[in-house]
Amino acid sequence: MRIIPAVTKNLLIINVLLFIASWLFESRGIDLNAWGGLHFFLASDFHLYQLLTYLFLHGSFQHVFFNMFALWMFGSVIERCWGPRKFLFFYLSCGVGAGLTQELAQLVSFMLIISPESGSLGLPDIVNIGHAYSAELNSWTTIGASGAVYGVLLAFGMLFPDERMFIFPIPIPIKAKWFITFYVALELIMALASPGDGVAHTAHLGGMLFAFLMIRYWQRHPSDTFGSSAGRQFFDSMRRNFERRSSRHSNPHMHAQQGGAKEKDWEYNARKKASQEEVDRILDKIRRSGYDSLTKEEKKTLFDSSNND
Questions:
Q1: pLDDT tens per residue, range 267-308
Q2: CA separation (Å) from 121 to 33, 43, 124, 132, 136?
């Protein structure tokens, strides 16, 4: 847990603790989902805060396990790339966007249910009918972090499209962009073919849609805080660091310095050790706070190190 970045780690802890709490409260006849789950906006138990609280509640062990596994796997990478504040904003925005999309899908479903009996209806009529059945509509409740997690999954695919991933049970590595494309297509098919399977496929697609729109906006409006190149630099730096560690044991007798001068083994090793310690410190800072937390001097040191190696 110590190597997991702060926001991802705290999200994992909160989700797991609330799952345990909901299980304990349920055994005592208290349903946390009735309070924090996202209800249909025409239901009597709907509250605006549920657009956030529903993200931290799950219905089963499998539900919370797979969501948290994906959050750990992909969220750790994205947070290290963007830093904690941007990642938290992105995660919560995807979750709220997924919730709003689910509300819209439920509104369409409600209209389809009541339209055969009532004919053509205006929005005021739909609202009035909804209020009349507000108690029954409380059963339309959505819980789970899946919408936000799917947004993080899409972010990984957009930032690192050519990163190869091993996905069980596929025996060969697959590029992230094809993996994400497959998931989007699958969710779309499931949303159309299995609307009553108890899974909020529309919310998953909504989380991905909001993620796509945010990332495209940031890519078109780069800034020092929300630059899109930090993620690639993070991966490149980690690869270079691994390669440097693998080749540390080489021991040439003489080494060329800048300007053509020669230096002895101990001078070269001392200089490289000091340089490597500084690079390691910078990489540790990226792991803790993201690439955007680096000063200009630290970014230059990292860049110079990659060119010199």
A1: 666 667 777 778 778 777 766 666 666 777 776 776 666 545
A2: 32, 19, 8, 15, 20
